[in-house]
Automatic annotation (TrEMBL):
<dbReference type="GO" id="GO:0046325">
    <property type="term" value="P:negative regulation of D-glucose import"/>
</dbReference>
<dbReference type="GO" id="GO:2000377">
    <property type="term" value="P:regulation of reactive oxygen species metabolic process"/>
</dbReference>
<keyword id="KW-0963">Cytoplasm</keyword>
<feature type="domain" description="PID">
    <location>
        <begin position="79"/>
        <end position="139"/>
    </location>
</feature>
<dbReference type="GO" id="GO:0046627">
    <property type="term" value="P:negative regulation of insulin receptor signaling pathway"/>
</dbReference>
<dbReference type="GO" id="GO:0009891">
    <property type="term" value="P:positive regulation of biosynthetic process"/>
</dbReference>
<dbReference type="InterPro" id="IPR039114">
    <property type="entry name" value="PID1_PTB"/>
</dbReference>
<dbReference type="InterPro" id="IPR011993">
    <property type="entry name" value="PH-like_dom_sf"/>
</dbReference>
<feature type="region of interest" description="Disordered">
    <location>
        <begin position="145"/>
        <end position="166"/>
    </location>
</feature>
<dbReference type="Pfam" id="PF14719">
    <property type="entry name" value="PID_2"/>
</dbReference>
<comment type="function">
    <text>Increases proliferation of preadipocytes without affecting adipocytic differentiation.</text>
</comment>
<dbReference type="GO" id="GO:2001169">
    <property type="term" value="P:regulation of ATP biosynthetic process"/>
</dbReference>
<protein>
    <recommendedName>
        <fullName>PTB-containing, cubilin and LRP1-interacting protein</fullName>
    </recommendedName>
</protein>
<dbReference type="GO" id="GO:0005737">
    <property type="term" value="C:cytoplasm"/>
</dbReference>
<comment type="subunit">
    <text>Found in a complex with PID1/PCLI1, LRP1 and CUBNI. Interacts with LRP1 and CUBN.</text>
</comment>
<dbReference type="GO" id="GO:0042127">
    <property type="term" value="P:regulation of cell population proliferation"/>
</dbReference>
<dbReference type="InterPro" id="IPR039112">
    <property type="entry name" value="PID1"/>
</dbReference>
């Protein structure tokens, strides 16, 4: 059985990003923008405002109320539409970010960079590893269901995962 990852985080928000090549460093600029907005907005350090749950096929971001309890508001991300993710940011090692292909009502799409702040660098890395596992499971399942026909499909999507834990 797959053990999914679930961590309390501070959701920093999302910002649209351009480009189709998602390579190392591509989340730096959006993360800096989100971090600056976030640090300007807060008077003091406030507790986690979300619960990030990574599973095969779907990532859930449950928004928490001021008491730290889950609200009805939840964002769902399809793992297959995540183009890139990393826990390696210069501005803070505690940030985990992912680029998501959001499909609009008119079937056009945009790439949004989402970021969360974790309690530690280790937690951010844990999320990156969990995302990698969810990705492997999702694509393995899609291949065996015949939804992916060419072997190159999974390689077209770039991900960066740091394997060191220090």
């Amino acid at each position: 059985t797959y053990l999914y990852s679930s961590l309390q985080v501070t959701y920093l928000g999302k910002v649209s990003t351009t480009g189709m090549q998602f390579l190392s460093g591509c989340t730096e600029k959006p993360v800096i923008e989100l971090w600056k907005k976030h640090t300007l907005a807060r008077e003091d350090v406030y507790p986690a405002n979300a619960l990030l749950e990574i599973r095969p096929f779907q990532v859930w971001l449950h928004h928490l109320d001021l008491k730290g309890e889950a609200t009805v508001h939840m964002d769902t991300f399809q793992v297959a539409r995540i183009a890139y993710c990393t826990a390696d940011h210069n501005i803070s090692p505690n940030i985990f970010a992912w680029v998501y292909r959001e499909i609009n009502d008119d079937l056009s799409y945009q790439m949004d960079c989402h970021a969360v702040e974790c309690e530690s660098k280790l937690e951010a890395k844990k999320l990156a590893h969990a995302m990698m596992e969810a990705f492997k499971k999702t694509f393995h399942s899609m291949k065996s269901d015949g939804r992916i026909h060419r072997n190159s499909s999974s390689e077209e999507v770039s991900h960066e995962f740091e394997s060191d834990d220090g």
